[in-house]
């Protein structure tokens, strides 16, 4: 098949990943795993005996939209890094005029903000899984920033805003 390496060629080599890509891959996997843990829960006890308990994970209410989108972003980011670097699937270096680092950074920030919105919308009865997931989404944002910096995508963004390609300012004004 074109664009993939045979599975018998070599085992997955984690040394191929940059620190930013490693952070994205680990954070995405951790976010996926902890999405199934308890994020919210309450127990009803009488005289030390638990009568009933109710719990919710990252795929359930309250505000399931925000957590589901954040979890899916983490899965896509981790899968993209793993497929690109470790599985040998060939992908373009840039998507349009932006490098992948910019997309990783944006995805990580969106996932982090969405989980913060979910947490701030309901801080009652929170459990361990929610906090680990928030940290994992922060890891996606940090990994995106590191990857964008490693690939030079941040400098390209700064140049765009400062009158480079596609910017609106920075040029020499016409002579009067």
Furnish the topology, listing elements before pairings:
Blueprint: H1 19-34, E1 40-46, E2 49-56, H2 64-86, E3 94-95, E4 98-99, H3 100-121, H4 128-151, H5 153-161
Helix pairs in contact: 1-2, 1-4, 2-3, 3-4
- What's the number of helices? 5
List the domain count as a whole number.
Answer: 1
Number of strand elements: 4
CATH topology: Butyryl-CoA Dehydrogenase, subunit A, domain 3
| Structural class by SSE content | mainly alpha
At CATH's second level, what is the architecture? Up-down Bundle
- Measured as a percent range, the helix fraction is 40-55%
What is the H/E order?
Answer: HEEHEEHHH
Largest sheet: 2 strands, antiparallel
Radius of gyration, CA atoms, in whole angstroms: 21 Å
Oligomer designation: single chain
Q: Which overall shape is indicated by the principal axes computed on the Cα atoms?
A: elongated
Assigned CATH class: Mainly Alpha
Q: What portion of residues belong to β-strands?
A: 5-15%
Poorly predicted ranges: 166-171
């Amino acid at each position: 098949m074109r664009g993939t390496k045979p599975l018998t060629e070599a085992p997955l080599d984690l040394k191929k990943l940059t620190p930013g890509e490693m952070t994205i891959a680990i954070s995405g996997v951790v976010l996926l795993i902890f999405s199934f843990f308890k994020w919210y829960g309450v127990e009803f006890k009488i005289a030390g005996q638990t009568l009933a308990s109710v719990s919710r994970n990252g795929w359930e209410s309250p505000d399931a939209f925000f957590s589901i989108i954040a979890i899916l972003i983490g899965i896509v980011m981790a899968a993209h890094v793993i497929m690109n670097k470790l599985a040998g699937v060939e992908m373009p270096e840039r998507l349009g005029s932006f490098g992948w680092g910019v997309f990783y950074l944006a995805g990580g920030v969106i996932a982090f903000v969405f989980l913060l919105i979910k947490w701030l919308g309901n801080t009652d009865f929170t459990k361990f899984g929610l906090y680990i997931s928030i940290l994992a989404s922060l890891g996606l944002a940090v990994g995106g920033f590191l990857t964008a910096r490693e690939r030079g995508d941040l400098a390209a963004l700064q140049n765009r805003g400062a009158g480079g390609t596609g910017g609106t300012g920075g040029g020499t004004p016409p002579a009067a």
